[in-house]
UniProtKB/TrEMBL annotation:
It comes from Acrobeloides nanus. Pfam families: DDE_3. This is Tc1-like transposase DDE domain-containing protein. One of its GO terms (molecular function) is nucleic acid binding. Residues 20-87 form the Tc1-like transposase DDE domain. Transmembrane segments: none annotated.
Length: 125
C-alpha cells in the first residue's frame, strides 16, 4: 500500500490537477489482492475493479499490447550480464520513447475497447 499511497496518488493528483481520472488495473495475481483492490476503490476517483476487468486481457492494457514490445526491442537488443545493466537499459529505452508514440498508443485505446465489446470479451487483433 505504501507504494500506491506514496507514489501513485501524489503522481496522479499532480498529473491530473484536480480533474477526474480512472485507474485501470488488470487481473494479474500480484495486482488483485483484496487489500489493494479496497485501497484503490476508496482512494481513486474512478476505479475499474478486478470483477469488471476481462480476465487475461493484454489486448486492453497499453503496456502489454504496445509499450513492453518497444522497451524489449530497445533494451534487449543485446544480452545483459547483470540486472542493473538491464534496469539501466530499460530506463534509457523508456526515456527514448517519443511522447507522440505514447499519445498514439493512448488514442488507440477506445478502438481497442470497441473491438473487445464486439468480440464479446474474446480475442481480437
Amino acid at each position: 500500500m505504501a507504494m500506491l499511497r506514496e507514489h501513485l496518488l501524489p503522481w496522479a493528483n499532480d498529473l491530473f490537477d484536480g480533474e477526474e481520472w480512472c485507474f485501470q488495473q488488470d487481473t494479474a495475481p500480484a495486482h488483485k489482492a483484496n487489500e489493494t483492490q479496497e485501497f484503490l476503490f476508496e482512494e481513486c476517483p474512478d476505479f475499474i475493479t478486478k470483477a469488471e476487468w476481462p480476465p487475461y486481457s493484454p489486448d486492453l492494457n497499453p503496456m502489454d499490447y504496445s509499450v513492453w514490445s518497444i522497451l524489449e526491442a530497445k533494451a534487449c537488443a543485446k544480452p545483459h550480464k547483470t540486472i542493473e545493466s538491464l534496469k539501466r537499459s530499460l530506463l534509457k529505452a523508456w526515456d527514448e520513447i517519443p511522447l507522440e508514440t505514447l499519445v498514439k498508443i493512448a488514442d488507440n485505446f477506445p478502438k481497442r475497447l470497441q473491438a473487445c465489446v464486439e468480440a464479446e470479451g474474446g480475442y481480437f487483433e
